């Protein structure tokens, strides 16, 4: 931010050319005391913990207005009797925010907080959040996502063996729909390696492709302290593709071929894009950003673990987020 406090910079890492892109922006007064706590469809969720206010903004979009980014104020957070609203796991939206005069668009924002609270609202219609008590505790890696194909919000249960979901007709007392995830065709690995994976950190992610295919991504990783010679160790990633759903059970088959797709996993809502739609992206790959910064090529079975590019601040003010490709 500039000395007068008005001009700031948005720093974006462009994957195709591995370069840092800088966009000068006027820093809005509404964001001065707010913190970026989530991202979905390229929009950021900013929250002020002191007064529980929140808003959605396109400030991170390099092609958005440099002086007047769009700001959509959300209802104030209201914690449930057994919940809290200070720590946000992530945000998921049914779509990017529609135009102001488009009242027919059924745009829904969902926020998963640390613990059991899930909050949903239609920002253009609701004056308050609909708070739902999920059937299980969620920790920092618990990720809410929206399925455009099914028109449902999905949340993986701890362990990654069950998936619960809510449709757009959400109510506080409405029970979620449960789906058991049955894994097939597990990769052929030595028993010692399977046992070793039990000691690794693991994250489970549910992702949907532009065509409506669903994938379960299991990310295992062992870490050493940063700034040591081997701090970035190769993660083990397993991808399972949904084959069919029957009697509430989703059959998931292991695959090392997701075709012309690139999956992006970070602190934001996970997403998937066609590699051919964005020159420079690697097909059949997974881009990880969080505990480490790496791109896995499933075809070549290789991993590129990258250092942060030159020019990045020593202290990153925001949590790491992948953002979908932008266009003017």
Description:
- The chain has 328 residues and is an all-beta fold.
- The chain contains one helix and 23 strands.
- It has one domain.
- The chain is 2% helix and 44% strand.
- Strands 11-12-13-14-18-17-16-15 form an eight-stranded mixed beta sheet, with no helix packed on it. A five-stranded mixed beta sheet has the order 20-19-21-22-23, with no helix packed on it.
- InterPro entries: F-box_BR-signaling, KIB1-4_b-propeller.
- This is KIB1-4 beta-propeller domain-containing protein.
- Residues 13-286 form the KIB1-4 beta-propeller domain.
Which helices and strands, and how do they pair?
Layout lengths: L6 E8 L4 E8 L8 E6 L2 E6 L4 E5 L13 E4 L13 E6 L15 E5 L1 E7 L8 E9 L5 E4 L4 E5 L5 E6 L9 E8 L6 H7 L3 E8 L5 E8 L14 E11 L2 E7 L5 E5 L5 E4 L10 E5 L3 E5 L4 E4 L23
Parallel strand pairs: 14-18, 19-21
Antiparallel strand pairs: 1-2, 3-4, 4-5, 5-6, 7-8, 8-9, 9-10, 11-12, 12-13, 13-14, 15-16, 16-17, 17-18, 19-20, 21-22, 22-23
Largest sheet: 8 strands, mixed
Shape: globular
Question: Radius of gyration from the CA trace?
Answer: 20 Å
Q: What is the terminal separation in angstroms?
A: 24 Å
Strand order of the largest sheet: 11-12-13-14-18-17-16-15
Helix content: under 10%
- Report the portion of residues in β strands: 35-45%
Brief overview, please?
By secondary structure, this protein is an all-beta fold. The chain is built from one helix and 23 strands. Strand 11 and strand 12 (152-156) form a beta hairpin.
Offer a few descriptive terms.
5-stranded mixed β-sheet, KIB1-4_b-propeller, KIB1-4 beta-propeller domain-containing protein, globular, F-box_BR-signaling, mainly beta
